[in-house]
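This week, study the protein below.
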Amino acid sequence: MKDEIISKANQSYMSGDYLNAYNLYKQAALRMSTNSFDLNILLCANRLNNISVNKEKLPSENSPYSLTELHKNNPEQVYLNLEKRNNPIWLSLGENCLSDNILQRHGLKSFSSPYAASRSNIDYVIALEKENYASILLKENLVYEDAWGKKVVRSTSIINADDIYEPSCSKGFEFTHHDPISSINDRNSFQRRIQRLNEFRKKKDVVFLYHHRITERSNLIKLREKFSTFISFYLGNQSNCHLIFFYQTLIPKGGDSLNLISFHQI
């Protein structure tokens, strides 16, 4: 039933019937599970926001969107109350390519960030932001290494990180699907991703999606502090920045496991 409502909402949205789409997306959001995060939340949130910034006639009592309110039965799990002035840019921030895949699958992805197809962590991200990505493509800092039998390129310029990450995401910044050592096209592609970040920095509202690979060493308090530091690089007088992070936990249920996804906004 929920999928049918979303399908009708998408049709209304694409045809320009924004008021009907708005109401249908809200209906769909209300039907989403309160036990685990439904990825369609991202689609509904983005479409509701797009409608609001298009200044179509909407019910005046409603804010642009507030999925925290829509999910009031589970407020600690979903924080998508993003009161936006401008249509935001949606970008992935790691720790692997899952966050980018989610944004792309649900029509939210604005463009490929440097973290769209890589392995990294928020400590690497902060270090790269502080140096404006100056060292990441220097050939003297790039090496070939093995990742589960596959040859990948890693940067040795940024390697310091707290011991709170899954090991595959803390061996140096990994170009999982690019070879900036041998391929000039891959180097240029990655450079363009950095340039696009700088073009919109502090000029446009941005929403970053971050997937934390949970381990026994994970420290969510430390992560939140680091996320707040990162956000400061994109906050401006005329722009805002939000970071949404999620992690997955396998919960034993009978002979099977339930994949519980916890979802938070900074």
Summary: The chain has a mean pLDDT of 77. The chain has two domains: 1-82, 88-266. Residues 184-200 form the longest helix (17 residues). The chain has eight helices and seven strands.
